[in-house]
Amino acid sequence: MARTMTRGKQQVLFNYLPNRTFDFERVAAIARVVEIRGDPRTDLNASVILRRIAEEASAWQEDFRPVLRDDVFRQADRFVLLDPRSIQSELFPKVFWCQDRRCGRIFDFSNRDSLPQQCPSCRQGRLVQLRFVKIHRCGALQPLLPPQCRQCRTANHMALDTRGSERISNFRWVCRRCNSAQTPYGGYCAECQWPDQNLRGMDIEVHRAGRTFYAHTTVLLNIPHRRFDSFFALPEWQAIASAKLLEMEEVAGHNLTEYGTRAQASQGTQSAGLSGADLDELMRRQASGELTPEQFVHEMQSLREVRQQEQQASSPSGIVRSLCERTGVPWSIWNRAGQEMLEAIMPMETGRPTELDMQNPTEPSTIARQMGFSRLALVSDYPIITATYGFSRAEYSPNQCRLNPFPAHKDHGGKSPIFVDQVQADALLLSLSPERVIIWLEMNGYHPVIPPGTDQHLARKAYFVQLLSEAPVRETLRADRPEARMVFGLLHTLSHLSVRQAALLSGLDRTSLSEYVLPRALTFALYCNHRFGATIGALTALFEQSLTEWLHAVRETSPENS
User: Fold this and answer.
1) DSSP string, 265-312
2) What pLDDT score does 2 carry?
3) Are 548 and 492 in contact (CB under 8 A)?
């Protein structure tokens, strides 16, 4: 009879993924996940999710992600987004160890369905699964099998002697026939030809050790794909999102979706014309004697030119030109930062935010300004997606291991699965003032080099986009990027403190709240990561009832108070 166990979706996305081993609960058994069955999430924006995954995967050279190449990520039909529903696993490894210390023999039952419980050699020891496996940085996972005895030329009598140690380097293979001993050795990986010959050896690890499996996961905001299809069809959508974040007048009063609709409507239109209000005003002035017929024609032509210039300035191509000229930051950087800029403004576009009025002389507004915040908002529906797209072994860092996709799913036409979970709950969105952060950097002895834009106010905001554009923010920033390290550390410190104090004031477990950092936008969000229980509405209650106390607590526990 098949055994079952229950786990939550977040646990599945991190700990129960295909090709990962785990200890089956309540029974002394080790299993390996074979497959995750789930429901396709066609409502999620696959192109946005793949764009984010491709951005993270680009840290690997393509030689270290041969199945997850750049051209593969551009083919959305090769992937399926699955919401996990059930897991199928198998017993692994089928290598068993006699627990009689006088015996200790190892048996490989990989080709057998029926498994004995007693040692077939000594007839006394109880058999348990061998908890050690072999791994390689290419992603290979193999059972640890005994070697042949060098004298007897057989592995049938080999035992594993731990010699009272938990360190594998102290273990020995011992032949119970001739008593010769060998040091355990993983051997070379037969599944790859790793470019560095010194790294071709497999490592022996306890199956549950962290090095045996690293899940590669990304977190992002869900962007409603049908509503924003026409917007994403614009080659310049990154510039529009960035201009919205910078509050440029060219995009003031316009929603993002308007640009896609406007682009479709303007196809075939030659130029901007005068509005009915423009014509009414000109005719009124002529009727009142302010304009002669000749002046009327001249004014109409001049006004038409103004409207055409306004249309050009507010067009996507005009926004790109204005964005780059006024900030002094090249288009290549804005292009790469587009997704992050979009996520920073999206809650204001699609959510129902309640913003703290920073200009109102109330106590929470005063404290928030003193702490350097330029925005603090409550978002009632914050759609966070967790997407797990691959795994590695032995190492996690780019180019030190192979980034592997999960096995192609037979129930979905052989597509590569990406396992997703969406939580839509209340969140607090906080943004730091760029001016205050620049002052803070200067007070700490740094001299920020502001981009040479024609608008210094916008250039100072854009400085942080440029500063963090090439910074590997998903890794530990080294000392050769001191300003980026300082800014990123400031954001992370504030987000950690904010989560901790929010959990304390709300009476929640720390793990019930999560943070989401958008460093180039100097923004972070706190959100509830559970769908039920006490977390529902917790941040709404905090914002409405305990905001002053919470801000006080965060400020008092900050290592620096600028």
Assistant:
1) HHTT--S----HHHHHHHHHHHHTTSS-HHHHHHHHHHHHHHHHHHHH
2) 61
3) no
Angle at 60 between CA 55 and CA 63, to 5 degrees: 130
**239 alpha-carbon distance from chain centroid:** 22
Cα 148 to chain centroid, rounded = 46
Distance, CA of 482 to CA of 491 (rounded, Å):
14
**What's the helix, strand, coil split of the chain in %, to 5?**
40, 25, 40
- CB count within 10 Å of CB 124 equals 12
* Predicted pLDDT at 307: 60
Residue 478 pLDDT grade (very low, low, confident, very high; cuts 50, 70, 90)? confident
Rounded to 5 degrees, what are φ and ψ at 172? Answer: -145, 140
Beta pairing partners, 205: 133
Give Cα separations from 343 to 48, 221, 339 (angstroms): 11, 6, 6
pTM above threshold 0.90: no
Calculate the alpha carbon distances from 480 to 333, 460, 476 in Å. 20, 22, 11
pLDDT, tens digit, for every residue of 211-261? Answer: 999 999 999 998 876 788 888 889 999 999 999 999 999 898 888 888 876
CA gap 421, 9 in Å, rounded: 7
Q: For residue 535, what pLDDT is reported? A: 56
Query: Does residue 562 have a pLDDT over 50?
Result: no
HEC string of 110-121?
CCCCCCCCECCC
CA 202/CA 206 separation, integer angstroms: 13
Q: What is the DSSP letter of 360?
A: S
* E strand or H helix at 555: helix 547-557
**Dist CA 240 CA 335 (whole Å):** 10
Give the span between the Cα atoms of 66 and 72, in whole angstroms. Answer: 10
- Residue 141 · residue 135 · CB < 8 Å: yes
**CB 333 within 8 Å of CB 234:** no
The amino acid at residue 249 is E
Strand, helix or coil at 133? strand
pLDDT per position as a tens digit, 352-383 = 799 999 988 899 999 999 999 999 999 988 88
Closest CA to 140 of 90, 184, 89, 191: 191
pLDDT tens sequence across 323-351: 999 999 999 999 999 999 999 999 888 76
Residues in the chain: 562
* 8 A C-beta contact, residue 489 and residue 446: no
Identify the three-state secondary structure at position 161: strand
Per-residue pLDDT reduced to its tens digit, 74-87: 999 999 999 999 99
- Backbone phi, psi, residue 132, to 5°: -100, 145
Distance CA(477)–CA(472), nearest Å, equals 7
- Cα–Cα dist 488/172, whole Å: 48
Whether omega for the bond prior to residue 316 falls within 30 degrees of 0, making it cis, is no
* CA 537 to the chain's CA centroid: 24
270 pLDDT exceeds 50?
no
Q: Is 86 helix (H, G, I), strand (E, B) or coil?
A: strand
Q: 327 with 451: CB under 8 angstroms? A: yes
**337: nearest Cα among 242, 411, 403:** 242
343 Cβ contact partners less than 8 Å away, ≥ 6 residues apart: 220, 221, 518, 521
DSSP class of residue 476 equals P
